[in-house]
């Protein structure tokens, strides 16, 4: 006789808790919902639903992977982010909810530009899954975007995600180290670059250091290598009335602001994440 959904959920939660997972209940619920294509509400409403043997085997395998600290959404292969659903790959950082703050921060600047010009071009440096660019494309039909990344596998994933979310006709990619292979000018440049100090990476949780690509984490000896590269090259690619949006580490607001101030840009807005830490900075050119 098949076990019920509620029984399998309880057993999965117990296995995860026994392995020391802090959010065992949430992890178990999200895994089962994703594997069985159910919403959280359906998980509750269908508690007495029998679980087929092949589904039970898939659930057991997924729980075993989570016990080894593989992140839940990597196990499922997909993650919802803002208004889009994203496929993940080993070459891409898993987008975090805090990065949605950068998307929200750039909506108003983008709409101002479009109100003035009728359209806008965006460059997403270190695009990864394409999360930031694709979420903005989904929200703003008049926007065109280029996703730039050093990893060919990340660009392949970003193109797949553009197709999955119906915005592929307005999204293109460039394999490049920051601005090296970029051509043309843009109204908006955004980036969630690597910003973790190199000697801290070994101390990160296993979920991060074993599964997120090192290229997406390592910000150099002081965590600022990417910001220096962007600040030093951006003048050649940002339109005169353009905007820059950046995700930063919790303690980098002053140092990143100083880098862009020295490059001729003014901090126009700053946003904190859901934990109250500095997370997003928005810059425009300084008035002459």
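^ Assign residues to that structure.
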């Amino acid at each position: 006789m098949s076990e019920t959904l509620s029984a399998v959920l309880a057993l999965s939660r117990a296995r995860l808790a026994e392995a020391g997972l802090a959010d065992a209940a949430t992890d178990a619920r999200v895994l089962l919902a994703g594997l069985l294509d159910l919403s959280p509400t359906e998980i509750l409403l269908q508690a007495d639903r029998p679980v087929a043997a092949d589904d039970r085997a898939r659930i057991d395998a997924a729980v075993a992977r989570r016990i080894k600290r593989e992140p839940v959404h990597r196990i499922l292969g997909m993650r919802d982010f803002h208004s889009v659903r994203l496929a993940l790959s080993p070459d891409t950082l898993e987008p975090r909810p805090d990065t949605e703050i950068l998307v929200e921060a750039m909506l108003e600047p983008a709409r101002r530009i479009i109100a003035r010009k009728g359209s806008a071009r965006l460059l997403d440096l270190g695009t990864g899954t394409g999360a930031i660019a694709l979420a903005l494309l989904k929200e703003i039909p008049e926007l065109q975007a280029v996703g730039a990344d050093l990893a060919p596998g990340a660009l392949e994933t970003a193109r797949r995600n553009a197709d999955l979310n119906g915005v592929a006709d307005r999204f293109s990619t460039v394999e490049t180290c920051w601005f090296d292979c970029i051509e043309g000018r843009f109204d908006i440049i955004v980036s969630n670059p690597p910003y973790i100090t190199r000697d801290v990476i070994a101390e990160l949780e296993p979920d991060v250091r074993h599964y997120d690509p090192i290229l997406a984490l390592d910000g150099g000896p002081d965590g600022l290598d990417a910001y220096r590269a962007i600040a030093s090259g951006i003048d050649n690619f940002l339109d005169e009335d353009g905007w820059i949006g950046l995700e930063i580490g919790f303690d980098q607001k002053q140092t990143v602001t100083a880098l862009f101030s020295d490059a001729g840009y003014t901090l126009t807005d700053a946003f904190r994440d859901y934990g109250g830490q500095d997370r997003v900075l928005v810059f425009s050119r300084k008035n002459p």
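The mean pLDDT is 95.
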